[in-house]
Amino acid sequence: IEDLTPIKDTQPYPVGVAIDSRETSGSASDLLLRHFDQITAENHMKPEAWYDEAGVFRAHPDADALMQFAVDNDLRVYGHVLVWHSQTPAWFFQNDAGEPLGTTDADKQALRDRLHEHIFAIAEDLSTKYGLFGDGNPLVAFDVVNEVISDSADFADGLRRSEWYRILGEEFIDLAFRYADEAFNQTYAAAGADRPVTLFINDYNTEQSGKQLRYKALVERLLARGVPVDGVGHQFHVNLAMPISALEQAITAFGDLPVTQAVTEFDVPTGTPVTEALLVEQGYYFRDAFRVFRAHAEDLFHVTVWGLTDGRSWRSSNGAPLVFDDGYQAKPAYHGIVDGELPE
Ligand code: G3I
């Protein structure tokens, strides 16, 4: 591992990285611990990850590995994600006979009960195993709902037509936050402490105007109803053509609301073929983006990159989207983030 200035020492907010258990040992772990002070489970805290094949609740072994890694190394954990339309077992939305739940009162109540059980089981599992309510609690936040905003402008409420929505309508979002607030509060309250788990809503393309307007309108409705949403996440899966000003504008757009914000899943593929010139251009992009993030540090709970090394990224086929290469070497993107020297 190169003897470089740790990224985390150069930024005014925690700097996170999405990982799975592969990054908890060897050179990957050395690199991670040098540069980052927070982790997100890339997949192993998603709804389906908490259930075995028979649908029985249990923490995924990799989720446990990540939590233990965080405890051992004094890292913060950003939970991802309690409620999503994707990576959720089909039985969530079915009755005992395996038929789709409808919208009768009984079916709606069945889904509310399932949501309640799911969120409480996760909170209880984490609190029992990792002393969430004492010193050294690694879990600082959770994405409560992910990607609930529609990609199109077709619906007055701006919400994605998911199974959650089909059965419960907008109510599922309120309930998810209220249950998460209760689930993480009950045990904290018992320990005489406030809930230290910040509750986030999270979405992509929030740097684009239509999605952003729909996103903000929802957050405003939630706040008006007293729903305990604490934070607004911007995934920022962007590319070199996205103006930096759009990232700044997205953060500014929510500045008048009583919420914190975060950059939750940052990555910037170069396009292919990946050339030296594109990697340098990417370095400038990371430099300018992180200058904007630092300028808005007061609004940001953390900034997270969506993967440690290029080959491990979900967008690797779009061209080297991350900060370190597969040999664990710093790319120009690293020098951009720390505002160091970049080639002309
Ligand atoms: O683990 C299985 C493996 O056993 C199997 O052989 C293999 C075959 O396809 O699949 C593996 O699962 C894959 C999983 O990643 C773990 O690698 C899934 O197919 C694959 O779909 C899954 O992709 C993840 C994706 O979410 C799923 O929607 C990506 O890693 C992950 O980076 C991505 O993350 C999302 C965020 O949660 C939400 N925001 C967007 C972001 C990017 O899509």
Automatic annotation (TrEMBL):
Domain of life of the source: Bacteria
Domain GH10 stretches: 1-340
Family statement drawn from the similarity comment of this UniProt entry: Belongs to the glycosyl hydrolase 10 (cellulase F) family.
Protein name: Beta-xylanase
Shown stretch of the complete protein: 347 to 690 of 1121
